[in-house]
Amino acid sequence: MLAAGWGLTACSGDDGEAAAQEERPQVIAPGAPGEDAEILSPEEAAERLPEPGEPDAADIGYMHRMVDHHGQALQMSELALERAENEAVRGIAERIAASQGPEIEVMRAWLDDRGAGGEPGDHEGHGDHGEHGGEGEAMPGMARPEELAELAAAEGVAFDALFLELMTRHHEGAVTMAAEVLGTTTDQTVEQLATDVIATQNAEIDRMAALA
């Protein structure tokens, strides 16, 4: 079982092997008191998820929505890696991809363990472009299709400014969603993921504010 407080990171090192590992995001699982932390692949981390209890509809809904929410962040980050002019903006995009990619794998494994898996958009009440619920309510912070199209067409400093604007709003939405589920969940994995989202994305919001 993963210890409380595990985090997701892209590890780096000086030799060739460590450099190769840097390209593959990894999960740090803290050890018991007096023991060293372990570095795991996302697949190994998923295997250590706590045994599923009775599925909670709110937890399942949160995990499904956050998979989709993270997916859009990865989409915008891929654009930034190709189009950003500022090296610091590309660095933020790299960190987002390094953390949210593995989180998606862990969330999908959690959903599969509860028989609630499937590709984004398969779960009940989900719509395109981050909508959910019977009335098509948009998830907090999600970029609209026209905003994504504008980002894809932007270049240079205009791209950087729009990316920072959209990603800051996106992160603020993720923090809102995570804070809401922390108020209701009793699931260890959901709690750990939501806590990590709040800490990581608030730090990234501060970095983006310094660049805006």
TrEMBL record:
<dbReference type="InterPro" id="IPR005183">
    <property type="entry name" value="DUF305_CopM-like"/>
</dbReference>
<feature type="compositionally biased region" description="Basic and acidic residues">
    <location>
        <begin position="114"/>
        <end position="135"/>
    </location>
</feature>
<feature type="region of interest" description="Disordered">
    <location>
        <begin position="114"/>
        <end position="136"/>
    </location>
</feature>
<protein>
    <submittedName>
        <fullName>DUF305 domain-containing protein</fullName>
    </submittedName>
</protein>
<feature type="domain" description="DUF305">
    <location>
        <begin position="59"/>
        <end position="211"/>
    </location>
</feature>
<dbReference type="Pfam" id="PF03713">
    <property type="entry name" value="DUF305"/>
</dbReference>
<feature type="region of interest" description="Disordered">
    <location>
        <begin position="1"/>
        <end position="53"/>
    </location>
</feature>
<dbReference type="InterPro" id="IPR012347">
    <property type="entry name" value="Ferritin-like"/>
</dbReference>
